[in-house]
């Protein structure tokens, strides 16, 4: 014997009822089919009743709609004589319903008893239609078999009596029987109901009474999911879970099964199979005894409830006083307020509990009344209510056998900047629940789902600012490497924001790198740094990284807010790390406190591993004594390229065309770019330094930098003659020019030097950089790092490496 229950959507249309018939006909066993009302009908019936009691005539329109819906279904399913017979039954039931509702309208009263009578009409109608549609099926009136007390609206089942009646009714039964769900009656034979979702309950009572070998709940989803699939696209069906896990997940918002359903079948050890009527071939979820030996994974699912208020009762007068909890929860129970979560500090100084927000005011009032004397005497403070909250819970029986779950959970949530307002865990260790702001719910679900269910993949969400030479190159590198990183490192890099100085585009579902520019042009909103920053923060997405590939001062000003919002920063822009020392320290400190990253490896030497090496030296206890370096790719290129037929002005243009120079090449020519780089190296070596501490020996007079960019290009050829003269002299002395940065004993200096053959800088070709660190450990032979020090491709690669560092893979 099997019991199958079909919900409202499963029987919501003629087409779906045909599917139901197919499913039932394919069963090998004897089956009892319990059905809900046609989807949405019970709401319409109750609405009609409410309209009637309010005296509005609208209930007639609602009734017409209910009639038409049933007639349509009958019309589509039946033919000839059978159609007339079914129509007759349906019309008879609808007339009966109409009379009760007219009565409600006339006397202007709608008691819970009448509501129970009215509420079950939908199931009575649907079960008659379906029993007629399935050839050979019988019909049984569940309301006569399931007995309850007389608490109309929330009747309690008399299991002993119901079991006996069900067993008698099905004694010797074989074949198919269709029964209405939800309906029951009291000892006087008056209609009662089993609560919304009660059709599941009807089916469970039948299954338990008849020792069915399985209870199948046919619905419109594939089963219990690891998380709400409307929020977590990657949520998947849980194949099997225990009765307790199903109960917990149902309580925390997974609306797959009506929670009371589980108890009667659990007591008899009958498994519950959840199936999708629209996809009968899908496996579904099996609810059964817990797997022996704890073979199941520790966490089965994540669930959440929104629109929660947290009420806190606090006061020194509560410490060590017995009976406080009893009075508190007694007061709530008297007001019929359901408490969803309780958290109490071991000091007993405060108790926080969560209720549905619509109940918060009543709860506050009930407690204030109960503790009026203590509040007046200041033993208890004013009751505090915080609304706009959600409860999230992870559920799994095997958490008990596994250490480190709570540690991993709260570490992941904390790193993503989600504040946890309250926590509760029962000693059964079946569930860990915590309270967050509604606005943090999506992010919380995502990070927790990713870390417990998809832990083989790490997703990093990238917000790009600046898509010029470096930024554009970076995106192409990411595109080329995306698939490999996913396959080999299980790292998913997702572009979720992109902006230049004109437009910005954000999409939490991802922006394909192929064609991102066209999409930015077509769909992008007008850009603005503040607006982009706010949009990044507001998206509140998990594992975010903001990648700055501009040279903008204003962009660097966004970092503190972004870091404070737990957004990691990877930047090619040198402005922040070379800004005032206090600001540099502040940014590093925020990142450290938040457990996120602020990375700027490309600020010195483009893609060369200079800052990371320096960090390694310092972290391992070495002390930097001297830094000597050629740090400008542009200047090195210029001094390696300048020749009799290639004047200074031309080399500057060439450096720009090669992508070595800053967007504004005057930053390179004035030495500012090298000053910034030296400052960053000195700071990362552990020393304090500011711009004013660096001596700059300029090689181009200031007047060349005073005007606009146009003025600069117009006048730059005036440098040529003088430089050519100096170059010839240098060549004759077998020397070369290098723009050198040096730090030693607290003194920092940058400037043009004439380098003799044999010096490590002499052979430095093209745009290459070279850094020499003299340290306590690298003393006689300094550590040298040398290679391409500028260029879009190598810089983009360095930024890319920093992004991968953020992901910690
Ligand atoms: N080239 C190299 O070898 C290296 C470069 N770097 C650094 O990389 C950074 C980028 O350089 P590069 O790619 O050459 O520069 P580009 O001029 O080619 O690109 C700059 C990008 O930033 C955007 N941008 C500029 N200002 C703003 C703003 N206020 N708001 C939004 N977007 C803005 C630009 O948008 P739009 O096009 O709309 O103006 C453009 O997309 C610089 O900080 C540079 O110092 C670091 C190491 C080496
Ligand atoms: N403009 C810079 C680029 C790298 O930081 C340089 O020329 O070195």
Automatic annotation (TrEMBL):
UniProt organism field: Sunxiuqinia elliptica
Q: A Pfam family for this UniProt protein?
A: NAD_binding_3
Into which family does the record put it?
In the N-terminal section; belongs to the aspartokinase family.
> Is Cell division tagged as a keyword?
no
Q: Under which name does UniProt file this protein?
A: Aspartate kinase
Q: In which pathway does it act?
A: Amino-acid biosynthesis; L-threonine biosynthesis; L-threonine from L-aspartate: step 1/5; Amino-acid biosynthesis; L-lysine biosynthesis via DAP pathway; (S)-tetrahydrodipicolinate from L-aspartate: step 1/4; Amino-acid biosynthesis; L-threonine biosynthesis; L-threonine from L-aspartate: step 3/5; Amino-acid biosynthesis; L-methionine biosynthesis via de novo pathway; L-homoserine from L-aspartate: step 3/3
Role played: Bifunctional aspartate kinase and homoserine dehydrogenase that catalyzes the first and the third steps toward the synthesis of lysine, methionine and threonine from aspartate.
Domain ACT per the UniProt entry, residue ranges:
313-394
Cite the entry's keywords alphabetically: Amino-acid biosynthesis, ATP-binding, Kinase, Lysine biosynthesis, Metal-binding, Methionine biosynthesis, Multifunctional enzyme, NAD, NADP, Nucleotide-binding, Oxidoreductase, Sodium, Threonine biosynthesis, Transferase
Please describe the quaternary structure of this protein.
Homotetramer.
């Amino acid at each position: 014997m099997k019991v199958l229950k079909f919900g409202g959507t499963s029987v919501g249309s003629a087409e779906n009822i045909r599917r139901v018939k197919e499913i039932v006909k394919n069963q090998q066993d004897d089956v009892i089919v319990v059905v809900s009302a046609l989807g949405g009908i019970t709401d319409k019936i109750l609405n009609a009743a409410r309209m009637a009691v309010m005296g509005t005539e609208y209930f007639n329109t609602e009734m017409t709609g209910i009639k038409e819906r049933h007639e349509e279904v009958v019309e589509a399913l039946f033919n000839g004589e059978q159609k007339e017979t079914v129509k007759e039954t349906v019309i008879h039931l609808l007339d009966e319903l109409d009379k009760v509702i007219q009565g409600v309208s006339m006397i202007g009263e709608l008691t819970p008893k009448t509501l129970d009578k009215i509420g079950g009409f939908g199931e009575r109608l649907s079960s008659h239609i379906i029993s007629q549609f399935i050839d050979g099926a019988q019909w049984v009136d569940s309301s006569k078999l399931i007995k309850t007390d007389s608490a109309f609206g929330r009747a309690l089942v008399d299991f002993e009596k119901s079991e006996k009646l069900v067993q008698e009714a099905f004694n010797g039964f074989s074949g198919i029987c269709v029964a209405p769900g939800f309906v029951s009656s009291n000892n006087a034979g008056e209609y009662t109901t089993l609560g919304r979702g009660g059709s599941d309950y009807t089916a469970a009572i039948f299954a338990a009474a008849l020792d069915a070998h399985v209870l199948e709940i046919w619905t419109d989803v594939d089963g219990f999911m690891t998380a709400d699939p409307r929020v977590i696209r990657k949520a998947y069906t849980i194949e099997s879970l225990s009765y307790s896990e199903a109960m917990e997940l149902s309580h925390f918002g997974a609306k797959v099964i009506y929670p009371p359903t589980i108890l009667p079948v659990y007591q008899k050890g009958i498994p519950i199979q959840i199936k999708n009527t629209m996809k009968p071939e899908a496996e579904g979820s099996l609810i059964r005894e817990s797997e022996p030996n704890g073979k199941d994974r520790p966490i089965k699912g994540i669930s959440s409830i929104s629109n929660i208020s947290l009420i806190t009762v606090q006061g020194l007068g509560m410490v060590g006083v017995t009976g406080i909890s009893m009075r508190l929860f007694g007061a709530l129970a008297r007001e019929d307020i359901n408490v969803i979560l309780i958290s109490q500090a071991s000091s007993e100084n405060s108790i926080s509990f969560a209720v549905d927000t619509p109940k918060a005011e009543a709860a506050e009032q009930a407690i204030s009344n109960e503790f009026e004397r203590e509040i007046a005497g200041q033993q208890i403070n004013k009751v505090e209510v915080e609304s706009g909250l959600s409860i999230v819970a992870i559920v799994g029986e095997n958490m008990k056998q596994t250490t480190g779950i709570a540690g991993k959970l709260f570490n992941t949530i904390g790193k993503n900047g989600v504040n946890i307002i309250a926590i509760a865990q029962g000693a059964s260790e079946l569930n860990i629940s915590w309270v967050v702001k509604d606005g943090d719910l999506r992010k919380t679900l995502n990070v927790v789902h990713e870390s417990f269910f998809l832990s083989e993949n790490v997703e990093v969400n990238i917000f790009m600012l600046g898509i010029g030479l470096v930024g554009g190159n970076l995106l192409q590198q990411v595109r080329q490497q995306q698939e490999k990183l996913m396959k080999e490192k299980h790292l998913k890099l997702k572009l979720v924001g992109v902006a230049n100085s004109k437009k910005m585009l954000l999409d939490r579902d991802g922006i394909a790198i192929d064609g991102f520019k066209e999409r930015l042009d077509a769909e992008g909103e007008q850009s603005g740094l503040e607006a982009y920053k706010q949009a990044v923060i507001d998206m509140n997405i998990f594992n975010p990284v903001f990648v700055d590939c501009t040279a903008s001062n204003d962009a660097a000003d966004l970092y503190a807010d972004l870091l404070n919002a737990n957004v990691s920063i990877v930047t090619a822009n040198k402005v922040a790390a070379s800004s005032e020392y206090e600001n540099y320290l502040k940014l590093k400190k925020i990142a450290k406190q938040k457990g996120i990253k602020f990375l700027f490896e490309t600020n010195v030497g483009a893609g060369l591993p200079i800052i990371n090496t320096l960090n390694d030296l310092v972290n391992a206890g070495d002390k930097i004594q001297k830094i000597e370096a050629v740090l400008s790719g542009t200047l090195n290129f210029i001094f390696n390229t300048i020749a009799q037929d290639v004047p200074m002005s031309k080399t500057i243009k060439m450096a720009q065309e090669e992508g070595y120079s800053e967007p504004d090449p005057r930053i390179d020519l004035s030495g500012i770019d090298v000053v910034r780089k030296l400052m960053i190296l000195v700071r990362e070596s552990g020393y304090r330094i500011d711009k004013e501490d660096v001596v700059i020996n300029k090689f181009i007079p200031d007047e060349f930098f005073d005007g606009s960019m146009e003025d600069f290009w117009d006048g730059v050829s005036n440098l040529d003659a003088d430089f050519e003269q100096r170059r010839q002299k240098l060549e004759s002395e077998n020397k070369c020019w290098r723009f050198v940065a040096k730090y030693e004993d607290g003194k920092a200096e940058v400037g043009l030097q004439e380098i003799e053959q044999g010096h490590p800088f002499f052979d430095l070709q093209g745009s290459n950089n070279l850094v020499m660190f003299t340290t306590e450990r690298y003393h006689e032979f300094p550590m040298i790092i040398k290679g391409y020090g500028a260029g879009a491709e190598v810089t983009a690669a360095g930024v890319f490496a920093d992004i991968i560092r953020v992901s910690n893979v």
